[in-house]
Design goal:
- By secondary structure, the chain is α/β, with parallel strands linked by helices.
- The protein has two domains: 4-118 and 299-337, 2-Layer Sandwich (Nucleotidyltransferase, domain 5); 129-294, Nucleotidyltransferase, domain 5.
- It is 42% helix and 19% strand.
- The protein contains ten helices and ten strands.
- The strands form two sheets. Strands 3-2-1-4-5 form a five-stranded mixed β-sheet, with helices on both faces.
- A hairpin with a 4-residue loop joins β6 and β7 (142-149).
Length: 341
């Protein structure tokens, strides 16, 4: 029978559990988001995040197991997010994964959170073929990677300061919007008037594939201080912010494809759910004879499915071990796992 991998995600403010079976695909997944809890504080509180993972992880595990009637004894391996992320939150998932794997006498696999994201579009139909360029855009990361296969990643460019998701969230906060800021800003921007305000596009013509969004945040702060902030003004500023971020992301993605000579672009991470970004990339890349692939919307944010899937691919390459001593890596460069196969 095909191997079944249990995936556990607990890197930040989502607790995700999933079961993936090679040959059949995703069997079941469950997710709890802490957005409502953290919204009271305007951002993620690490200690509260860790405590909530402790409360949620076992009930979610039971839910997934019962949903598909797969007994624990049928699980062949457990994959968990080892990093990067919040140290305390990562420890919750790591300890549960290793304790359960020890009890079941099965291999355990520590997964890089970003590897989960960049492979997540392979869960969709149609799925991209290797090689491709991956644009990872989230609250903590903005990177362009060349992906030649599982474990074969080449960094093409990354943000030098704020990530694209941070630019969305911080701009939203300046406009008095709630947490999480990205979706709220995109919603407000829909009623904004394009072109009323012109914000900078940092490093748009830098000649490389790196990003910078801190200057944009400063420009938004200055604009907000100088504006009346009536509802239409706020919408116009939100529209300008979104346009600036998307202009930079789309320009750099096109440049990455041109530099590598590849035709396939994969977009992953929470910002990848932004509809305007999707429309722009589809149009720009399509005009050049390329194709853009995205994870399903439910898998854009952190989730257990991407961890189970990445773990299954690693397991197929005979990775995993039964040494249940573990550590977590709150800071972990994706390049460190390149070519481990």
């Amino acid at each position: 029978m095909s191997l079944i991998t249990l995936g556990i995600e607990s890197s930040c403010d989502e607790t995700g559990i999933a079961l993936y079976q090679m040959g059949r695909g995703l069997l079941a997944h469950a997710l709890h988001t802490q957005v409502a809890m953290h919204s009271e504080y305007g951002g993620v509180v690490p200690e509260l995040a860790s405590r909530d993972h402790v409360r949620r992880i076992i009930p979610l595990l039971r839910q997934v197991i019962y949903d598909v009637d797969v007994p624990l004894a049928r699980i062949d391996a457990i994959a968990y997010t080892q990093g990067p992320g919040l140290g305390g939150a990562l420890l919750v998932g790591a300890s549960v994964a290793n304790a359960l794997a020890y009890a079941l006498d099965i291999p355990v696999i520590g997964i890089h959170h970003l590897e989960g994201h960049l492979l997540s579009p392979l869960l969709s139909d149609p799925a991209p073929e290797f090689p491709f360029v991956a644009l990872l855009v989230s609250g903590g990361h903005t990177q362009l990677m060349r992906v030649d296969g599982v474990g074969q990643y080449t960094l093409l460019g990354e943000t030098l300061d704020d990530a694209a998701g941070e630019a969305f969230d911080k701009s939203a906060k300046l406009l008095g919007l709630g947490y999480p800021g990205g979706p709220a800003l995109a919603k407000l921007a829909a009623s904004g008037r394009p072109g009323r305000y012109k914000l900078p596009r940092p490093m748009l013509h830098s000649g490389n594939l790196d990003f910078s969004f801190s200057g944009l945040k400063t420009a938004v702060w200055t604009l907000v201080k100088q504006s009346d902030l009536h509802e239409q003004t706020r919408a116009d500023i939100a529209c300008a912010v979104q346009e600036a971020i998307i202009d930079v992301l789309a320009h750099k993605a096109r440049a990455a494809l041109a530099q590598t000579g590849l035709k396939r672009l994969v977009v992953a991470g929470g910002v990848g759910a932004n509809q305007l970004l999707r429309n722009r990339l589809n149009e720009d890349i399509g005009k050049r004879g390329g194709a853009v692939f995205y994870p399903d919307l439910e898998f854009c944010t952190d989730n257990g499915a991407m961890i189970a899937f990445a773990g299954a691919l690693r397991l197929a390459q005979q990775q995993g071990n039964k040494d249940y001593r573990f550590n977590v890596k709150p800071r972990w460069n994706l390049a460190e796992i390149t070519n481990q196969l």
